[in-house]
Structure formats: structure tokens, C-alpha cells
Amino acid sequence: xxxxxxxxxxxxxxxxxxxxxxxxxxxxxxxxxxxxxxxxxxxxxxxxxxxxxxxxxxxxxxxxxxxxxxxxxxxxxxxxxxxxxxxxxxxxxxxxxxxxxxxxxxxxxxxxxxxxxxxxxxxxxxxxxxxxxxxxxxxxxxxxxxxxxxxxxxxxxxxxxxxxxxxxxxxxxxxxxxxxxxxxxxxxxxxxxxxxxxxxxxxxxxxxxxxxxxxxxxxxxxxxxxxxxxxxxxxxxxxxxxxxxxxxxxxxxxxxxxxxxxxxxxxxxxxxxxxxxxxxxxxxxxxxxxxxxxxxxxxxxxxxxxxxxxxxxxxxxxxxxxxxxxxxxxxxxxxxxxxxxxxxxxxxxxxxxxxxxxxxxxxxxxxxxxxxxxxxxxxxxxxxxxxxxxxxxxxxxxxxxxxxxxxxxxxxxxxxxxxxxxxxxxxxxxxxxxxxxxxxxxxxxxxxxxxxxxxxxxxxxxxxxxxxxxxxxxxx
Length: 476
Fold this sequence. Notes:
Largest sheet: none
Distance between the termini: 23 Å
Number of strands: 0
Structural class: mainly alpha
Oligomer: single chain
Low-confidence stretches: none
CATH topology: Hydantoin permease
Order of helices and strands: HHHHHHHHHHHHHHHHHHHHH
Strand content: under 5%
Number of domains: 1
Helix content: 55-70%
CATH architecture: Orthogonal Bundle
Mean pLDDT: 87
Radius of gyration: 22 Å
Number of helices: 21
């Protein structure tokens, strides 16, 4: 293994920027407990976006409250998948963008990670920053700033700057600060929930209850929208990789899965209830604006602070993991300059979106686009971990020449690349959105089976081809 990727002597401390990138983490530098991952994943998911997505179920898709709750619980069970992925971090001792070399091959992984791990991360950053931009600009308008464009620009620059700073300081700062961030966000959102619950009709019944095919269409589309969140977090290994290699995998899975699922279920459910008390127009411009009208002034300010705090937590994590992508694909750049670069890219995308679209349009774009990519990548990663019994050759992951174990055929894994393409195609064929209805979804009358079919096809394709080529048998 090249000395470039040997473990550095830099300590993982919140007091200074993290110098380590994708380098293998030696046993003497491992630390932490798996329960700390709960807050790391809870902070990004105590979100006003959960209110918006929950309200979509009852207000837009026309589900009854109990039907919406069933969809919320079912979709959040998928958080076990990021949990399984997280367990590969301590096992391999490096980032997920390096571990997936074992899945796609050295060259194949460069293509997958360059697109999904970097360019898409920039878009993802922007779509989350847009929420803070809209709400922060609205708050500035209410206190007297009349120039909306200037307000949006000011909020975007400040929030993106703080986010990049979190990513630069890295793992130790995230691990230490997100417990406090989670507590603060929970306090804000619990108080907000307490104020809006009296305005909600708990006995609400849809004026025109759905049945038959229409009901299945709404249930399936709602499941796909909510499933996009846990399926998008294939970076969970990056936050767990500092844990000692002997850490029990089930503890890592449990802490990660519960960290995402618990706040998700709670606040999506509140959103579903909120959908019975606000208008469709309020949801279209952003349910957070409707909340500002429902709350007293002081709490409205706290809500905006909470939205900004949540955005920094979510995008700080995203920027941190994206900052290691350039190293993973072979670009000679250190992690900190890479974090700044991805932050600049996300800021530019944010300016474009904030000036040209509504918040709900931006959210829909994210959810529609990511499933085609996130379903097969998450599924194949999880299946690979299970097939290998979470055993990876850490030294060989950094061997990027034909002599390496993970070079496969010409630097590409037939199993990984084929599973990704076929799984993505299957997902797209069964996807049902306003922008795109797959032909097989259309044949079913508009029912969206993109997630279950995409998972099944990706998993089956990868298992058959990987075992046939003995790609995973060598590790068992």
C-alpha cells in the first residue's frame, strides 16, 4: 500500500481541522462508542422537511391519518440499510468511497463515486441549503430587509460558510457537537409541535376517501418519497470508521438505524397531522412559511434557527463525506481543499435554485432524481457486506493496479457495474412522478413500485453475478 494512504499521526480532535482523509485508520487511533452514532444521525433528521414530506401524504396524496402513519413506519424500517453500511467502516478502517472499490472495481468505482459521491452531493447540498435560504430571507424581510435577492444571498453565504467549517474540522467535531445539536433541535421542534397540535383535527377524515387503484397509487408514491431519505445515506461508513474494529456490528447498525428512524417517524407523523390543518397553497410555497403564521413571533424565530441548525448538521455531514471523494478517485488533493471546493459548488447551485424555483419544487426534484441512483447503490453495498460477512482486505483496497485483488477485469467489476445499471433501470421503469412515469408503472395504472422492485432486481443481479465470478467468495 502506498505511503500516501498509511495512517497519519494526526489525532482525531475537535480542536483542530481533521487532516486525515481516506487513509487507513490504525488500531491505536480508533476510538468511540457505537451509541454516539445515534446523535450523529438524529441531528440531520430532526427537520422541517419531515413536516413537508409528512403533510404531502395527507394533503396532496389524500391518505387518511392512519394510512399515512403506516407508510411512515414502513418506509423508516429501511433505516436498517444505512445501519448495515455503517458497520463496514470499522471493519475496513476507511471511508465508504474506498470500500466500494471491492464492489465496482478500481476504475468502475471512480465513475460511480465521481458522479454519485461528488456531483450529486453538490446538488444535494444546494437542495438542503435552499430551505435555509428561503426561511432566513423571509425572517430578514420581516425585520426590515427589503431586498429579497440580497437577503437570500446573505443567508446562503453565511450558512454554507458555517457548513464548510464543520466539514473542515471533521469527524471529531461532528461526533462531539451533534449530541448538543440534536438536543437543541429536539427542544425547538417539540415546542413547535406543542403549539401546532391544538390547531389540528385529530378526527380528520378525507372529504373523498381513496379506494382501489387510487389508494394503492397514493400509498406506493408516498412510500417511495419517504424511502428516498434512508436510501440516500450510503455514506454512513464514513462516520463510523473510527470505531475499533472489534466493535459489535449489531450495535453500530442499531445506533445508526434508530438515530435516523426515531426522529423521522415522530416528525413525519406530525407533518401528516399538520397536512389536515394547512392549505395546498401553503405546502406549495413551503410549509415552514405556514408554520411561521401559526406560531408566536419568538417561536417563529426559534424555528428559523432550528431550520438553519438542521441544515448545517445535514450538509456538514454531506460535505465531510464528499470531501474524501476526490482522493478516492485518485485526484491528488487533500481533504480540506476538497471540502471547500464542494462547498463552493453547492453554493453556486443554491443561488440558481433559490432564484428560480419554489422550495417544494426543489424538494420534489431531489426525491425524484435520487431514487434511480440511491436504490441500486444502497442495495448492492448492503448485499456485498452480507455476502462477504463484512470482511474487507484493507490493504488491497488501496492497491490500484492490475495486481490488486479488487482490480477484477480491466479495473471493473461486472457484477457491481451490471447490478448498478440494471437496478437503476428497474427503478426508473417502475417510478411514478409528475415528471416521469415509467412504462411498467404506467402499465400498473400509475402504482409506484420503484423501491421494492429496484431493491429486488439490484440484489438478485449482484448476488448471481458476484457469486458466479467468485468476486465475494474469496472473503468468506
